[in-house]
Amino acid sequence: MDAIKLASTYFFGTEDYISSNSMIATVTFKRRIDPEKLLSSYRSLILDNPLLQAKRVEQFEKDTFVWGRFSQEELEYFLEAEMVKLSQYFTEKEVLAQYSPTNAKLPFRIFPINEYTMIFSMNHAVANGLSLVFWIKRWLEYYSGEPEAEPEKKAVECATFRGRLLRMKKRVFAFLWMPIFAIGFMSRLMGKAASANGTVDLSYGRRPEKGGSYVKKAYCFSKEETGDILQRCRSKKMTLTEYICYLTTQGLLNHAPEKRRVFVSMPMDLQVLLNYSPETMHGNYVASLPMQFFQAGNLEKQVKSAFKWFKRGVPHALSLFFASFSNSYRKYKQQCLELCLKTMPERFPLWNFSITLSNLGIISYPIIEEWVDTIYFSIKNQSLLLTTSTLSGRLMMEVSVLESLYDSEEVFGLFDRILSVEYLLNGHSPVK
Question: N or C: which terminus of the chain has fewer CB atoms within 10 Å of its end residue's CB?
Fold first, then answer.
């Protein structure tokens, strides 16, 4: 199966059990959002962009699926329902509790919370996090009446023969590095005598229940605080993503000192390898790297060493490797469902993640910087999730957990300490 389709199929297999398939962006604007302009801009955005009319079409005779489009009648039906919804305010709790299976609603939706705050929802099978940011940007262009921005010079250059050759070279090297990564991963797993019970698991082996609600908590830092944090990263010769991973892992190990291993899932956007278009190409263009860190040894060196595999493109090579063994759409959906029924210890050694860390990077669209005060990202899943982004020089993070699997009070209390300014500026300070 195609690796991008494989990533989408995961959500098709698990959405009904977890009652989730969509990314969430909670956005607070600097200006009041006019209800009438919201209605007209949303309708125009959907009608003008075929990707936002995406419909999964299952081809059972070929044991696969393709992306199609809703018919005109279906589209008008869904738009009418969205117009009603856009005319009222919801509480954040009400929005987080909502779930619609793929094809039951439009893939991109907006929920007004008040005059200044809205939640944007996008089906994760159709797009990834950076694509969600792109569509928020496009909606703002419709809402404000500003013309679509000119394509960046970088995107034009990537379309050249030289750009394609460079990406192909990176993909080849990724495959060459993949077996070295796999051998090292397994040798460390066995050499450290890692076990399911020895891995930090804040769900404490709870059995996942069907559905359930999830909660989230946001953390925002001023420009001055963000600047100090970035200076701290530079002093340790780390990127912000590496530094957050380092501090989070350290905090988890300090929180559970009897455990020996923290297992991290880190998504990688595939733009650098595939040059996909969020406007026209369906799919979740993300590949994740499994990273394990151990109580024994220099944690800072472990983190720096692990992140080298991102630069080598190994996450994409791994996704293609696993996709080559998943030829059946129906079978893979069932495998994903069976996986989400297991406890975290039962998923050892490859799927019992302690945490998922996702950094959407610097959001630099001028129109978003002009209109948006804060933006936070989350998704309802079975892993403890920490998302990070930077907007207008300010670092913004959000922690989210499934309430039936995690003690939210314990998790938020832990991250109140890990994500405190004092701790972020002093990575060697223990989390008590």
Answer: C
**By three-state DSSP, how is residue 398 classified?**
strand
pLDDT-based confidence at residue 271 (cuts at 50, 70, 90): confident
The two most distant CA atoms of the chain are separated, in Å, by: 62
Contacts of 74 (CB under 8 A, 6+ apart): 55
Show the tokens assigned to 256: 């559970």
Task: Find tokens 């996090």 and name the residue.
Answer: 129
Cβ(5)–Cβ(66) below 8 Å: no
Read off the tokens for 410.
Answer: 């314990």
Q: Is the backbone of residue 245 left (phi > 0), alpha (psi -120 to 50) or beta? A: alpha
Q: Provide CB contacts within 8 A for 205, sequence distance 6+.
A: 343, 344, 345
Judge residue 203's burial from the number of C-beta atoms within 10 Å of its C-beta, 0-12 exposed, 13-18 middle, 19 or more buried. Answer: buried
- Model confidence, pTM: 0.94
Residues 6+ apart with CB under 8 A from 154: none
- Coil, strand or helix: which one is 388? strand
Residue 151 scores a pLDDT above 80: no
Average pLDDT of the segment spanning 345-356: 96
Q: Looking at the DSSP assignment, which residues form a beta bridge with residue 24?
A: 121, 378
- How many whole angstroms separate alpha carbon 112 and alpha carbon 86? 6
- Helix (H, G, I), strand (E, B), or coil: what is residue 54? strand
Q: 322: buried, middle or exposed (CB in 10 Å: 19+, 13-18, 0-12)?
A: middle
Q: Say what the alpha-carbon torsion angle 401, 285, 276, 328 is, to the nearest 10 degrees.
A: -150
Q: Is the peptide bond before 349 cis (omega within 30 degrees of 0)?
A: yes
